[in-house]
Amino acid sequence: MSAVAPEKPLDRQRLRQMMRARRRAQPLAVRRKAARALARRVSRHPLLRNVRRLAAFLPADGEMDPRPLVHRLHRRGVRVYLPVVRPGTRVLRFRAWRPGQALRRNRFGIPEPLPNSTPLLRPVELDLVLTPLVAFDGRGGRLGMGGGFYDASFAFLGRWRWRTHPRLVGVAWSFQCVPELPLAPWDIPLHGVATERGIQVVGNGGVTRRR
């Protein structure tokens, strides 16, 4: 994967600005082609095998679009969930959603399933989570938008290291890879990253492989 190497030390806010600008600069035709390539190369990967409950997200701000992948998985019988932000907490809940189903925007302007349409699921009940990100590295480091919602929601993976699920898979453009991210103690690492080039699995102390 190609990697961007900003000046050292890496500044998280500067990196966010740079990556977000580069994402937004991608033409619509390029975005669509990349999303289709991701779906084609990732949908049969072993990380997604036996997944029954999948959390996804809807793209914004030039993010890599996971919807073609999500649609493929939904047609295979995978149950899809979208994150729901609850007032007064950063811990997300997840509500079932079908492609084409009506949504409403939350206070951050992010589309969510309609309230009370289906019961809310706790993070621990999911099998695999597709997460948005601004940058990532080969150790599984993830830089988000700074709200801390995903780190707070899946903090139990850091406490309960015996847990093998849910697996966290970032969804990104390949150019969002950087040599090394400055990680905070509360940052929850990814199990893999899906891009238009395939899926990169993190393991063996930070050594990665792409399939």
From TrEMBL:
Q: Which reaction does it catalyse?
A: (6S)-5-formyl-5,6,7,8-tetrahydrofolate + ATP = (6R)-5,10-methenyltetrahydrofolate + ADP + phosphate
Which Gene3D superfamilies does the entry link to? NagB/RpiA/CoA transferase-like
Q: What are the alphabetically sorted keywords of the record? A: ATP-binding, Ligase, Magnesium, Metal-binding, Nucleotide-binding
One Gene Ontology biological process = tetrahydrofolate interconversion
Q: Name one Pfam family in it.
A: 5-FTHF_cyc-lig
Q: What is its EC number?
A: 6.3.3.2
Give any GO molecular function from the UniProt entry.
5-formyltetrahydrofolate cyclo-ligase activity
Q: Does the keyword Lipoprotein apply?
A: no
Similarity section:
Belongs to the 5-formyltetrahydrofolate cyclo-ligase family.
Record-linked PANTHER family: 5-FORMYLTETRAHYDROFOLATE CYCLO-LIGASE, ATPASE INHIBITOR/5-FORMYLTETRAHYDROFOLATE CYCLO-LIGASE
Q: What is this protein called?
A: 5-formyltetrahydrofolate cyclo-ligase
- Source organism per UniProt: Alkalispirillum mobile
Upper lineage: Bacteria, Pseudomonadati, Pseudomonadota, Gammaproteobacteria, Chromatiales
